[in-house]
């Protein structure tokens, strides 16, 4: 498999459990910066991918998150 795909190919699925969930993409590199944000309302789903530009995703609000590592919820 392509080595770059091994590093950057991970996807996450985010399902909003409330209105106004914010998803923020953070950049790679020497200085981590915000580079993109999305708002989701209850029931909306977003599929995001880690890329050569996105190293982390910050989520504000109650969500269900599905990754290759499993399913998580933060609504406890």
Automatic annotation (TrEMBL):
Residues annotated as domain Tryptophan RNA-binding attenuator protein: 9-74
Keywords: RNA-binding, Transcription, Transcription regulation
Family annotation (InterPro entries): MtrB, Trp_RNA-bd_attenuator-like_dom, Trp_RNA-bd_attenuator_dom
GO BP terms in the entry: DNA-templated transcription termination; regulation of DNA-templated transcription
Gene Ontology terms for molecular function: RNA binding
Keyword Transcription tagged: yes
Family classification: Belongs to the MtrB family.
Subunit structure: Oligomer of 11 identical subunits arranged in doughnut-like structure.
UniProt-recorded name of the protein: Transcription attenuation protein MtrB
Organism: Desulfofundulus thermobenzoicus
